[in-house]
Amino acid sequence: MTIVMGIETSCDETGVGFVENGKLLGDALSSSMAEHVRFGGVVPEIAARAHVSALVPTVRQALNNADLSLADVGAVAVTAGPGLATALHVGVAAAKAYALALDVPLYAVHHLAGHAAADTLEHGPLPPRCVVLIVSGGHTSLLLVEDLVRIPIVHLSDTLDDAAGEAFDKVARVLGLPYPGGPSIDRAARSGDPAAVAFPRPLTGPGDDALGFSFSGLKTAVARYVERGPAAGVSVEDIAASFQESVADVLTLKALRACRAMEVDTLVIVGGVAANSRIRALAQQRCDEAGVELRVPPMRLCTDNGAMIAAIGDLLVQAGAAPSPERFPATPTIP
Ligand code: KG4
Ligand code: ZN
């Protein structure tokens, strides 16, 4: 058995995790989120500096949590992209140094494959065929997955404009709710009425792209509604709940449409936005109605973390994949 150390530094979270044969042994996370709040979004240079400070202490903390020493590590996996260039470089350089010093193989991994692999830590190996909905700050994609490491993943659809998480973050700003917007809107919506405002359900009309997403029009609809002045008695919480309902409606509708079209009976929802309580609840309700099994990682494994990178590294090791060449670069944009 090989213990894989996973390192994640693609955005504002410094994550380190240890996985062996599909089992999470322990992990640790350090976030620079608080340093970005006053800018209303992640500042790449600040994130990169924070990774430099946090990386070694986070490795140490994760080792402690997993009750391991560095000598136990048999392979290193690191997010090579997509993500913020300066932030990725910190993790990639550190991972190369650890792999060289420990004389173990090194795997450059795709951040989104890591998000999908996070679910296997909780629910075991993925079934032979499933639809994966990835919803994060930078991506909104439907994928047909037969094997996370061996068979090419079939890309079913993407967003034409904003990612779902981006829409949450921008709408939160419009509503005067703190960054990051997803958790703020989720919290505010709990005391709001999701039927208060009938926001559009983008790309759900007849003749529209059956599986594609678009959230920029919805974001603009919320901004216009706020500019015009909400109707009497409509609160910020009501607007947050109504916006969230629209996103949850569209995401779950399209994800189940993809399951039907691909004749797949398992839906996996991953990425930061999968932490949203309404999306989780509506997805469960609609999957139950459709006879589809829903798999969503626990909340703490939905947002960026090191455990998910160790998880995809572990799958690569188990599949006998060749390690990455020593000179592999960080790749801020990869398909
Ligand atoms: O996967 P992630 O941690 O980082 C990226 O790879 O992008 O996703 C971050 C995104 C942010 O846009 C954040 O607002 C959103 O996930 N998010 C949520 C929730 N928690 C995080 N969106 C909706 N509801 C949440 N509870
Ligand atoms: Zn992510």
UniProtKB/TrEMBL annotation:
Cofactor-binding details, from the entry: Binds 1 Fe(2+) ion per subunit.
Key words of the record: Acyltransferase, Cytoplasm, Iron, Metal-binding, Transferase, tRNA processing
Pfam families documented for this protein: TsaD (PF00814)
InterPro entries hit by this protein: ATPase_NBD (IPR043129), Gcp-like_dom (IPR000905), KAE1/TsaD (IPR017861), Peptidase_M22_CS (IPR017860), TsaD (IPR022450)
GO molecular function, a single term: tRNA N(6)-L-threonylcarbamoyladenine synthase activity
Positions with a binding annotation for Fe cation: 111, 115, 304
Catalytic activity, EC: 2.3.1.234
Region (Disordered): 323-335
HAMAP family: TsaD
Function: Required for the formation of a threonylcarbamoyl group on adenosine at position 37 (t(6)A37) in tRNAs that read codons beginning with adenine. Is involved in the transfer of the threonylcarbamoyl moiety of threonylcarbamoyl-AMP (TC-AMP) to the N6 group of A37, together with TsaE and TsaB. TsaD likely plays a direct catalytic role in this reaction.
Family per record: Belongs to the KAE1 / TsaD family.
Record's protein name: tRNA N6-adenosine threonylcarbamoyltransferase
Gene from which the chain derives: tsaD
